[in-house]
Design goal:
single chain, 358 residues, mainly alpha, MetI-like fold, elongated
């Protein structure tokens, strides 16, 4: 009968190494021993695999945002027509029933998908409340809405990101003062602050013009950008506080590097992923904010189109038989905000992978 296995030395002089089951499960299929780096790499690989599982959604979101950017940049070159021109159809025109009478309507006012009076021939998305092409207005509205939202977030990143980086790097009294400034701005309701800034920058001068002399789009960028400053500043501060305590930053300080160089060369590159993730979410919020300001009458001024003022001008059509005038820009806002939120989550997930590998 063979001898039972033992933990001691074998008769042939060789020792048997009994490996615990937990270590056997964690050990990769390799000849060498398991080291701590292998476990960290395995954890990072698992996290990266979960990030890749989101690839389809990320591609769809990137594709949608790519389409929106193309529409915004190349709107004047696209064959969509004039967004301010009233369209008149050539006879025979669509017939509609009004008060028991059949009439021919040669304008596309209120005509379109889901409209009670039918679809305008040759205009798939129909017309707005003034008989203008909805397709043309939506394309040019993409240009205005993305310009306002992106410009506002870039302004917020420049001011808020710089202040947040300074607060997180120096800490102490500087951090206390700048954090208090952020808290004051955050304590004011965002829509009230934006309304006040737009009203101040748009006030009429004695000669009847704007006192600031700025176009309305620039005024909206500044107003929404100021609202975005404390949010981006707080996020940047939190990330900078963490990275400013890392060994490579302390080593740079020990070698006598200047504060400006350390912030720009050492801390900022590691803070940027978090800033970029929040910036994508900020653009989505800014798009909604522009729409809210338009409904309140202080958004992009007609006849210039934006997604917000298309809804604001013709919102009464939602219940008057032509809901497409409101539904179409609302769908664009929904899909764009959804895509930006999704891409922000993807950027954050990839940032977490980077942290897992450190």
């Amino acid at each position: 009968m063979p001898a039972p296995p033992t933990d001691g030395p074998r008769d042939d002089g060789r020792d048997v190494l009994v490996q615990p089951a937990s270590e056997a499960l964690l050990a990769p299929e390799r000849d060498g021993p398991v080291v701590e780096g292998d476990l960290v790499a395995a954890a990072a690989t698992d996290t990266h695999a979960s990030t890749r599982a989101l690839g389809l959604g990320a591609k769809l979101a990137m594709g949608w945002m790519g389409l929106m950017i193309v529409l915004a940049v190349f709107a004047p070159l696209l064959p969509v027509g004039d967004p301010e021109k009233t369209i008149t159809l050539d006879p025979p025109c669509p017939k509609v029933q009004t008060l028991g009478r059949t009439l021919e309507v040669c304008e596309i006012t209120g005509l379109g998908p889901f409209a009670d009076d039918g679809t305008a021939p040759g205009y798939l998305l129909g017309g707005d409340g003034n008989g203008r092409s909805m397709l043309a207005r939506l394309v040019y509205g993409t240009q205005s809405s993305l310009a306002v939202a992106t410009g506002a977030v870039l302004f917020g990143m420049l001011i808020g990101g710089s202040l947040g980086l300074i607060a997180g790097y120096f800490g102490g009294r500087v951090d206390t003062i700048l954090t208090g400034f952020f808290n004051v701005l955050l304590s004011i309701p965002a829509i009230i602050l934006a309304l006040a800034l737009v009203a101040f920058l748009s006030q009429q001068s004695a000669k009847g013009g704007q006192a600031s002399g700025l176009p309305r789009v620039v005024i909206l960028i500044l107003a929404i950008g100021v609202v975005a400053v404390p949010l981006l500043g707080r996020i940047t501060r939190a990330s900078a506080l963490q990275w400013s305590q890392r060994e490579f930053v302390l080593a740079a300080k020990a070698q006598g590097a200047k504060h400006a160089r350390i912030m720009v060369r050492e801390v900022l590159p590691n803070v940027l992923p978090a800033m970029f993730s929040i910036a994508l979410l900020g653009i989505a919020v800014a798009i909604v904010a522009e729409g809210a300001l338009a409904i309140l009458g202080v958004g992009v001024q007609p006849p210039t189109a934006s997604w917000g003022n298309i809804i604001a001008i013709d919102r009464s059509f939602l219940t008057s038989g032509s809901p497409h005038v409101v539904i179409e820009p609302a769908i664009l806002i929904f899909l764009t905000v959804l895509s930006l939120n999704y891409l922000g989550d993807v950027v954050r997930a990839r940032f977490d992978v980077r942290e897992a590998g450190i």
